[in-house]
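DATA SHEET
Item: assembly model
Revision: 1
Owner: S.N.
Input lines:
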Amino acid sequence: MLVIKRFSVGTGDRFGRQGAAQVAAFAKARAAGVEASIVWNKSKREHDLIGSAPSDQRAAASRAIAETGWTGPWHVDADHVGLATVDAFAPHCDFFTLDVADFIGKPAGSAAVEAFVARHAGLSSDSSLPAPLDTDTMRAAAATYLVAVAEAAKTYRRVRELRGGDDFITEVSMDETATPQSPSELAVILVALADEGVPVQTLAPRFTGRFNKGVDYVGNVPAFLKEFEADVRVAMWASKALGLPASLKLSIHSGSDKFSIYRGMGAIVRNEGAGLHLKTAGTTWLEEIVGLAEAGGDGLAMAREVYRAAYESIDVVIAPYASVIDIDKSRLATPDEVDRWDGQAIAAALRHVQSDPRFNSHMRQLVHVGFRVAAKMGDRYLDALDKHRASVSRNVTENLWERHLKPLFVV
Ligand SMILES: [Zn+2]
């Protein structure tokens, strides 16, 4: 089994141009004493919207490593794959996020549920378990999650077969569902994964509150941190008590920009001696637009053009992300207004600095999900990125380091 390090961050890189600038942020973390692995994650949905393939992401990652001479660990993540989609990713990835959220709640047979409850009856009186688990809770959780776990196991075995071994990291994700999982349910899920022999190293639950794209956590922060701490303890218990990998840790999806919870999460994992995987994706693309705007000239013109195109096709661009964004159309600046703004004003509206009165979360979310308009521009967009590389890179690195890695991992 390929073992993941204690701390890791999924960066994503929609157009495959920012790998080196992202690695620079991890180098800053290393200089500050924090070793974190960089994981380039990209889902089939992103590939389809952009017109790229898993081999492109692998090539971009390899290029970034060669360019920077990075000696730390790095991985390429087949993000949110299932049995139907995993094959195309298998040769190019060494991290697989098995998304089984759609199988949550599919009824497991009552015989399977009762067998599970009987096999693990001892857990209800196990004082080492950090979350209470009476028989009724176990039965209900088994009924809800056993089919999803079985699907994860099938997909895991498929990846093993395709790769001819277990030289990869397994993540199981259950975050894209309406109902959060309690720490007790998380324990049942991990018990079931251990039963199936899935060496899960990162698990992405659905937490309490909202993890919207590109904006801060929405919800009760102390309640979230209490739940997160309990989940961390359950994961640590599972690796000891169930024979799951010692590297098992939680994964936070839609993890960019969750400024109100980073310090609290960081303190909890350090206190508990636990690991953490933070998965982000779209933020780097936003920094490309910020960097283009700041560059002025034709970079600024490109930033304005992207905004106009996203604004004019708003219903199309937000459709795939409707459940994870919150845009008030009346708060968006019109493209004609934006055409009169200078680069600094556009950068300030999009850059996620909450103390800046010019920051506009509605515009930020629109551009966040609007990357397909840039994909349609093809080489014209990519050439602008190359031409204004210095300004774009500076923003990509600063965002990842100052606003993400530093508050999360550096005390
Ligand atoms: Zn997810």
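QC remark: The mean pLDDT is 96.
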